[in-house]
Amino acid sequence: MDQQAIHIPGISHASFKGYVVGFTLSVLLTIIPFALVIYGRGVIATTWIYAGIAAAAIAQIVAQLHYFLHLDRSSDQSWNLNAILFAALIIVILVAGSLWVMTVLHGRTAL
Length: 111
Prior knowledge:
With 111 residues, the protein is mostly helical. The chain is built from three helices and no strands. It is flat, with a radius of gyration of 19 Å.
């Protein structure tokens, strides 16, 4: 059964092997930040720990979009992928703008 395709309407490339790979990647990409925080304190600079957590989070998002939601660069999925990329852009703008405003306001209160 590991090589047989699972028949889901509209998704032709879902397989048991793909789900196992996606699950394994998700578990590993969840364990890495925990290990960085637990074992990396005092050994690795805090900035690198934060960077490792962010990198694992981004890799986790990409792995889950590819293996579980079956989003890729194929023409069938282009609208879904464009919608997700647009939503990500809006989130980045909102978070960056909020951080910028909070930094400016914090700088003004320190005067």
